[in-house]
Amino acid sequence: MATLVDTWFSSHRARLQRAVEACAQRSAWTPFIESPSGTLHPDGAKAAGQAWFDATLGTSFPLTMPGEIGRTGAEVSPYTGEPLGVDYPAVDPDALMRAAKAALPSWRDAGVQARVGVCMEILDRLAADVFANAFATMHTAGQGFMMAFAGSGANSLDRGLEGLAYAYKAMRDVPEGAVFERRFGGAPVRLRKRYRLIPRGVAVVISCGSYPAWNAYPALFANLATANPVVLKPHPECILPMARAVQIARATLEEAGFDPNVVTLAADTRASPITKDLLLHESTAIIDFTGSQAFGAWIETHCTAADVYTETAGCNAVVVESAVALDPVVDAIAQSLCLFSAQMCTAAQNIFVPRDGVRVGEERVSPAAFSEALVGAIDRMLADPQHAAGICGALQTDAINDTLRRLADHPGVVRASVPYAHPAYPNARTATPLVIRASAPDSVYQQEHFGPVGFVIEADSREQALEHASADAQQFGSIANYAYSVDPRFCAAIEDTFASRGSSVGINLLGQRPINFTAAFSDYHVTGLNPAGNACLTDLAFVTRRFRIVQSKTEEPCPASTTS
Amino acid sequence: MATLVDTWFSSHRARLQRAVEACAQRSAWTPFIESPSGTLHPDGAKAAGQAWFDATLGTSFPLTMPGEIGRTGAEVSPYTGEPLGVDYPAVDPDALMRAAKAALPSWRDAGVQARVGVCMEILDRLAADVFANAFATMHTAGQGFMMAFAGSGANSLDRGLEGLAYAYKAMRDVPEGAVFERRFGGAPVRLRKRYRLIPRGVAVVISCGSYPAWNAYPALFANLATANPVVLKPHPECILPMARAVQIARATLEEAGFDPNVVTLAADTRASPITKDLLLHESTAIIDFTGSQAFGAWIETHCTAADVYTETAGCNAVVVESAVALDPVVDAIAQSLCLFSAQMCTAAQNIFVPRDGVRVGEERVSPAAFSEALVGAIDRMLADPQHAAGICGALQTDAINDTLRRLADHPGVVRASVPYAHPAYPNARTATPLVIRASAPDSVYQQEHFGPVGFVIEADSREQALEHASADAQQFGSIANYAYSVDPRFCAAIEDTFASRGSSVGINLLGQRPINFTAAFSDYHVTGLNPAGNACLTDLAFVTRRFRIVQSKTEEPCPASTTS
Q1: Do B160 and B278 lie in a common domain?
Q2: CATH number at residue A209
Q3: Same-domain check for residues B193 and B322
Q4: ipTM of model
Q5: pTM value?
Q6: A193:B523 CB<8 A
Q7: A518-527 residue pLDDT tens
Q8: Would you tell me which of A187, A368, A527, B136 could form a disulfide with B240, CB atoms 3.0–4.6 Å apart?
């Protein structure tokens, strides 16, 4: 057992070390493969992933859990509209938590190096499984294949490795022991001190329905590295990719001789939810939550016995002040509204323009003309259904259609949301962006409308546009904001103003497409200074409280060897 | 302005760097002077401190505050029984918080190096003021002069520097910026990223009545370094040393050209408390609390909008299994019961012995004989009033006498608590240890009795003694536990058992006297795994959440310089 784990640690050590450096430098780096090109993967890898997914449909997922009281699962593919027909263990929360807790001591006692070695090996195996993960993510979250492959593959593995690297660094900051020598009045005294890293307890990781791996992996690996057993509670409509990850993690743990209950799955359905049972369970010491702002706030207020990390959502703003050319700007924004049907937490929603227009060269583009250009860009982007399918994917949840219906009658609608016809999946749940014109301020846009909804909002001036955008970001939450300006002084004001409101901003993103893209090892995701979440992916604060330090000190020499 | 602050940073840089190293190595180190010996301090330093204290009695403390609505203060010297007669600003919490908040932007924008330079300079000035601080602490907290000088002087400054060093290290972990270059499909894209450290907001630091500087300094400097203005709320009976520290901090800030309201004082009295107004204030972003377990728990549960750090109290245990000689062991424990009248959070309270006796060589010392030896050691230690005064100091609060009266009739009393006659202060509020015999388990000792109270508790066996001690530590809280054994296997069990219960332990402490001593840069104080507090002095977790990271990223070259 020790040998296998030692081998894992040694073989992954260089990558781990490089990841720790990347966290400090924060330039571009990834050890994982973002492209699904056949030349970069083993022969037949994509076909094998597809075959695994096809064979899994309509079966019992090969996973048993402690406290299993039956089977559960009611996932429906957003592409086919058909139930996946996959069932998972239904668990008794008490029994599951007991098993997770029982797995803690041996996992803790294995030590930092063994735990990190196992985590690196799990990451490696997940990386080898990216095609299977992509198909599972596509048919649960509704992501298009490319996003499911890259975003829920390499990009999510990056974030997992990043969380692991920070945990490793934070734990290494505490020496295993020290010798303390000084005089206390008389002769020199020597104390041998030992500092143990003690996990908090069981961590409940709640993954979301639209982008499960990206937020779950950092929490999973930060918790495992710091010796907290993980109960992974997937969104009821997005279980399969997480079940697959749990399966791989458990197999790796077992192979290394560890109790597989270090990682467990707590699946449920909307009809019979178990989330609150887990969150409020007396054994729950850590909560990592990705999901709605309202539920995140509820957890922050009510789960005070646990160490709580939330990543939720906000209404992300775009301030458009000026540009060299209009088309690249509206194309970039249009893509953000279309991409994965704006179900990413970094998707733009509220596009602020000055009432007297966006400066483009010597011209002023009026809000009306800007809206028209944006709508035109969206229409062009989605004209080809094949292309539309690749960009938009499918709607993860029917609730988005409710939102779109509710807003359809708004007097400011300049582009109606209609479905696009998916060329491969005629029953796919799809929607193209709804675009609405409004004037600042208006409560209609001062909340997140999850899904493809964009507002073009007139403000009295560019300063007012920035003021509204940043104040809303602070008050209603935001994860990523954007701005376009060719005026260096206004760009400086944009940076300062968003920073003073605790919100991040990307300026003049044109070559970085999609603008939504957030890079592990470089972008700090979520500031914790507005209602869009309290935790950052990934900084030291994300990991340092997951373990505590217990010290013992012993005076030497042992009194048995001397007469004092 | 910049020049002075730069000079400060440069002149203190070597000490800061050494402190960062000390935090990582955790062996013995201090840059401050623990001894009041005249040869180690400027001529007349002690006399000047005494003169300052004498001249301060019966005056208005020379400090004004924003939002001042009058004067307040009702401190009484535990030594003389007389009011100090010192008054301080009484403040309107709203106005004070507004002023603290207004001081934030310029302090934040000064940058890490400037803030840390100012903090190092404040520490230096506090170090030059240790005699004044000692007299102020003595006549408010009730500490004896030596403890007030060393414990509330060098030892507290160490903890402050330690908190500062961790904050510095954590902030340096975030680069100021990065260049991010990669391809997004087409040509390489270059993003200039900037990572700003943003403070949470106003920090309310609540210092305790018995040991104000030791816990307040780490919080003060960790908050200041990370740009959070500090409202220092001292215990109503222990304002003077904190007012002095605030005065020095404000003078240093002003000299450097900063808004002095970066550090403010919020004094009150028991009759008109303002603590909850501050804790629940909408501008309060961070709370550092030292005080009772009950109030700490209330804060943890109710102040969910703030980032909360608590250091409270517990019932610390001693497990006495065996020894080479009995006298050194009972002397060490007796001292812990006497020292500062057991008003330290690391004082022993519950002394567990096996029913069949403590092994000493070939002998077994019965619980009765052990109690007798302990009482004898206490009596010997306090026989000389001069010596007793040096060890015991005075009782910080009258409430301890209530405790002693309540327990005086317990049938297990083997040593009654009587005052000792202080040779210099005939009206000093003093008490010697009350010692009570009990059998495990008994609710009488399963709580902290603040003050000089010790229980000698019989357990069925040494294993049961360890079991009771560690289980109580976990359930009722403990900050420091102790054990004596010459059996290496039992010592290992002691370490493992306390660690598994989330509590620290010191084994065979004999040469380290007092056993209560906790060294900054070496001892991790409070585990956060039991009810004695959620924060550790000092680890990375103590500092990493005090600031957040806001990023901006800008695509380069600027669009104004190109046609895209």
Answers
A1: yes
A2: 3.40.605.10
A3: no
A4: 0.97
A5: 0.97
A6: yes
A7: 999 999 999 9
A8: B136
